[in-house]
Amino acid sequence: MSIEKMISEHPQVGSDYNEALGRAVKHAMYCAAICNSCADACSAEEMDMRQCIRTCSDCSDVCEATYRVATRRTGDNRQLIRTMLATCVHACEICEAECARHDNAHCRRCAQMCQECAEDCRRALESLNDEVHADGQVSHFEHGAA
Amino acid sequence: MSIEKMISEHPQVGSDYNEALGRAVKHAMYCAAICNSCADACSAEEMDMRQCIRTCSDCSDVCEATYRVATRRTGDNRQLIRTMLATCVHACEICEAECARHDNAHCRRCAQMCQECAEDCRRALESLNDEVHADGQVSHFEHGAA
Amino acid sequence: MSIEKMISEHPQVGSDYNEALGRAVKHAMYCAAICNSCADACSAEEMDMRQCIRTCSDCSDVCEATYRVATRRTGDNRQLIRTMLATCVHACEICEAECARHDNAHCRRCAQMCQECAEDCRRALESLNDEVHADGQVSHFEHGAA
Amino acid sequence: MSIEKMISEHPQVGSDYNEALGRAVKHAMYCAAICNSCADACSAEEMDMRQCIRTCSDCSDVCEATYRVATRRTGDNRQLIRTMLATCVHACEICEAECARHDNAHCRRCAQMCQECAEDCRRALESLNDEVHADGQVSHFEHGAA
After folding, report:
1. How far apart are CA D34 and CA C68, in angstroms?
2. Could you report the average pLDDT of every consecutive run of 10 residues in chain A (146 residues)?
3. Taking a C-beta distance cutoff of 8 angstroms, is the pair C10, D43 a contact?
4. The pTM is what?
5. Which residues contact A73 (CB under 8 A, 6 or more apart)?
6. Which of the listed CATH numbers 3.90.650.10, 1.20.1270.360, 1.20.59.10, 3.20.20.70 matches domain A20-144?
7. Do A75 and D145 touch (CB under 8 A)?
8. Touching check for C129 and chain D: CB below 8 Å?
9. How far apart are CA B77 and CA C111, in angstroms?
């Protein structure tokens, strides 16, 4: 099953399917799941993992909101997608830094996932910025929210 | 990235990793994302898709809760996982039946995803039932909730 | 702000607004938030709270899906609302039993919230059952899912 | 039931309970629920409400992640809370602007909720900025993420 193909079948999406954004959606979805699992695994460890439970729980919530918002293509809300992608990069960087401090296999896997998700969100952000500039205009939502 | 491998690295999980449950987690995660995308795509279609928006939105929420709960392995909450898996089967069957009534590519893909997710949740449920019976006992939580 | 008034303003809802269901929505929303907070507070305690983190995290996820699904009134999906309400009762009973074992103020508050949420979900479930029987028929979704 | 009191009972929170942040948590929780309801109500209206369904769905997801992250007090992740509060202001401003364009009672209520939530998030953000400056230092997470 492919979330990228799903998005490409949206009635407003055609030849202009944004690959970088599709990839960010997929990895934010995975990162939400991996961080949720890491928070749970950390709570079962013997050592004090409370800061890691915190950053993983937070990162899971942010990634989930990010992938859900970044999936949608009806109407327009690109400005908010850009804000969420930047927020997701922030959450992933914090979580990666914390997980990288621990030797548990689940923390190492989570740190790697966060790094990849942050990188994909950065690329999607650049790609969206290019799209908006290429349009030579911003939508009324982007004006309204400025 | 693999959510199944992530779960197998949980400190309470070892040789007893439940493959059927791991597969249900993965597909419920995907189904949450696909249904969220289908609800959005349906709202952009010209025909009246309101019932489909409803069943997709509901199924997305149920699948998300299911995969998050079914991922956790700290302590014990198997009884709730079983209840959520059965609920997820129900949500997926309803959503599949509605999406199957429409010719849109995204609805066909969503119907297929729901069918697979329901099937995987059914197998995970059987597998958990076997586990609980093999234990020859129920936990105090299961007693408490009965 | 009132989520109950919001639901009563839905175009398909009029004089038939279901008070018991509106109350369950409100309390499941609160229970999702309280359980999320309790899971976090438990992870900061000195004693071993891992089982309580688990049941609170699970209950938060289930309550959130429940209130979101039970809020919707477009088209029909009452059968799934009933299944989710029953699942929510189960999650709240398990979480209440675990939180009641601890003396922390946040656990006592969470146990009370879970008890109230379970009670409201039970009443909403009865109310929906009455509605469905009063209709003298079940929708095609309810047939399809049976 | 009070989510603010719940947070004040967290073991790391005492006389330093941040009222502005507690209020933002409460209203972001409500705004997530109101926007979820408005998206559903909009899909049942006769007129074309697709842009409003989009902005309400997005705002609901962002508010939910915001209130869950902003609730937590274990360890430290204030920098991410600040980023999420700013993102939530953005989502609420966009959703308020769209809902304000429609005469439906649910859209008017949703616009008002979004306005209040944005205002509370702005105040919580100022309050957190003051806190961080008063500390005269930033945590290693804030350094790491800079």
Report:
1. 10
2. 93 92 98 98 97 98 98 97 98 98 98 98 96 69 40
3. no
4. 0.94
5. A7, A10, A12, A13, B40, B41, B44
6. 1.20.1270.360
7. no
8. no
9. 17
